[in-house]
Amino acid sequence: MNPDREQPTLLLVCTDPGIGWGGTKGAAVHLAEIAAALAAAGTDVIAAVARVDDPLAPPGVRLTTMPGPSRGASTGERLAAERARARWLTSLIEDTSAIAVYERFALHTAAACRAAASTGTPHLVELNAPLIDETAAYRRLDEPQEAARLEHEVLSRATHVLAVSRPVAAYAASRGARRVALVPNAVDPRRFGAGADAGRQPPTAVFVGTLRPWHGIDTLAEAWRVLGPRAPRLVVIGDGPGRDRLEAVGAEITGAVPPSAVPSRLVDCQIGLAPYPAGGPAYFSPLKLFEYLAAGLATVAADIPGVTDVLDHRTGIVVPPGDADTLARAIDDLAASPALRVSLGRAGRAHASAQHTWAHRARTILALAAAASDRHGVAS
Question: I need a labelling partner for 40 at 20 to 30 A (CA). Which of 6, 315, 327, 337 fits?
């Protein structure tokens, strides 16, 4: 660390051109929340990103755009920029005396990995999904052999891989990661004020997120068909290909909204929903889950590890993925019982505040960075 600096500097890197700083999707929210929490914990954060949607940055965070391809660039263009990006990141590490590089893992790049290695700087890699498998299943995976080679290079050389769920941690280990820590998503409860009135009648149910098949949109729509006239009002904060199916069962779709607007939308809701499909991905750490808890909603979520590692019978209701009938019964029970909603909402909010804040995650990250700096012989 530069002795003239009062605080250590951490370099936060996101090379993924699909994640715009200041954007509305969950990945962008995660990136901004982590940066803000690290800065609030007493670290100077330099956020080096491939794309900026909104240049506003929280106090203590300096935003810089990496040279090279951004949104719309081909995989070939991204690969061709690797050497230049690695040199640029190396210079940034040296100029700022960063104590660690904290990177959100992206496909088709090892630039941050190589820059960290060339400067002897600890490299912490945040892994949010098995991206090769996910991209091959739901989008299009270009240059699969090169993607796999670069993924193995990054994960095997990382000082620490921070996985958002147990399945992601297992994936990282299978791809060569030497040290893996479980660091789920989280929330800033202060954004949600006093929380919702979970006992308000009649209740409103809410789903937050992109309306993609792997988020259980079909299960949600089918549950409303099962409920029929008993169904509570359903508000959907988000947009995507599943919009028509949800509108067909009476859902009110707000469209995508800025992350800053989500807390005010949840104030008028009482039941938070996080369904997932049967046979779908089980590796998510749903950001919406933590937002529902912080907002004081009675939460119903699918039985996947990223949910059951957070919820128990006191803080929410867990249902089998893809089981619309069980989901409908849980919603029916909650709609009929204001006392149960209040109990779950209060317990969930207290649990999120006690164990699942971004401040908790920042402390974990900085502790790993400090331990790694000691091992690497970086002065602090």
Answer: 315
